[in-house]
C-alpha cells in the first residue's frame, strides 16, 4: 500500500469512540465524535502556507482536512475542531489548526500498513499510529508527552466509517 492509497482510504465520514487516560493510570476519560476527512488540493492556499512553514515542497504534498463534532468526558458540551494535515515527501509532516498554528514532524507508513506520525511543539511531543482493521474500521493510538511537567497521556480510538467508502 502506498501513502496515497492509505490517505485515500481515510477519506469519508467516521464515528469515533475514544478512551484516554493519564500515565500512570488515573481517571479514564471517554469521548465520541463524528469525524469528516476530505482531500485538499496541493494548490490550496492553506496547503501552500503550511508547506512553506514546514519546508515541504507543495508539488509532492498530499493534504487532508479533518473536522469533528463530539463530546469528551462527562461533559455534555459539544467539542468541535478542524485541522489540516500535510504529508510531504521524505517523511516531512505538518498539521495546522483552525487558527493556523502549526506542529511539524515526521510520518512513516510501515510494512504493516500502519501510519506513524510524530509531531513536536515546545515541550509537547505526540506520537500517533493509525491502521485499518478493515476498509470501514480504523484504529488509532496516541501518546502525548509533556517534557516540562513529565505528564503523559495515552488514548485509543476505534472509528467506524459512516459514509464515503474508499475506492476499491
Question: What's the layout of helices and strands?
Answer:
Elements: H1 3-10, E1 12-23, E2 28-40, H2 45-54, E3 62-72, E4 79-87, E5 92-97, E6 102-109, E7 115-121, E8 124-134, E9 137-146, E10 152-163
Antiparallel strand pairs: 1-2, 1-10, 2-3, 3-4, 4-5, 5-6, 6-7, 7-8, 8-9, 9-10
Please explain how this structure is put together.
The chain has 168 residues and is mainly β. The protein has a single domain (3-163), classed as Calycin beta-barrel core domain (Lipocalin, Beta Barrel). It is built from two helices and ten strands; from the N terminus they run αββαββββββββ. Strands 1-2-3-4-5-6-7-8-9-10 form a ten-stranded antiparallel barrel. The model has no long low-confidence stretch (mean pLDDT 91).
Question: What is the radius of gyration computed over CA atoms, rounded to a whole number of angstroms?
Answer: 16 Å
Q: What is the multimeric organization of the chains shown?
A: single chain
| SSE succession | HEEHEEEEEEEE
Q: Hey, roughly how much beta strand do the residues contain?
A: over 45%
Number of strands: 10
How far apart are the termini?
13 Å
Within CATH, the superfamily carries the name Calycin beta-barrel core domain
Helix content: 10-25%
Side by side, the strands of the main sheet go 1-2-3-4-5-6-7-8-9-10
Amino acid at each position: 500500500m502506498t501513502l496515497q492509497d492509505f490517505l485515500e482510504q481515510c477519506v469519508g465520514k467516521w464515528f469515533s469512540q475514544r478512551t484516554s487516560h493519564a500515565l500512570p493510570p488515573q481517571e479514564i476519560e471517554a469521548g465520541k465524535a463524528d469525524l469528516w476527512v476530505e482531500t485538499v488540493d496541493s494548490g490550496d492556499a492553506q496547503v501552500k502556507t503550511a508547506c512553506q512553514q514546514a519546508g515541504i515542497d507543495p508539488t509532492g504534498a498530499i493534504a487532508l482536512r479533518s473536522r469533528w463534532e463530539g463530546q469528551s468526558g462527562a461533559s455534555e458540551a459539544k467539542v468541535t475542531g478542524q485541522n489540516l494535515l500535510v504529508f510531504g515527501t521524505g517523511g516531512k509532516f505538518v498539521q495546522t489548526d483552525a487558527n493556523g498554528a502549526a506542529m511539524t514532524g515526521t510520518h512513516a507508513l510501515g510494512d504493516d500498513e500502519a501510519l506513524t506520525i510524530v509531531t513536536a511543539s515546545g515541550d509537547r511531543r505526540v506520537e500517533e499510529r493509525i491502521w485499518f482493521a478493515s476498509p470501514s474500521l480504523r484504529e488509532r493510538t496516541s501518546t502525548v508527552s509533556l517534557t516540562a511537567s513529565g505528564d503523559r497521556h495515552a488514548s485509543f480510538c476505534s472509528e467506524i466509517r459512516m459514509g464515503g467508502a474508499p475506492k476499491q
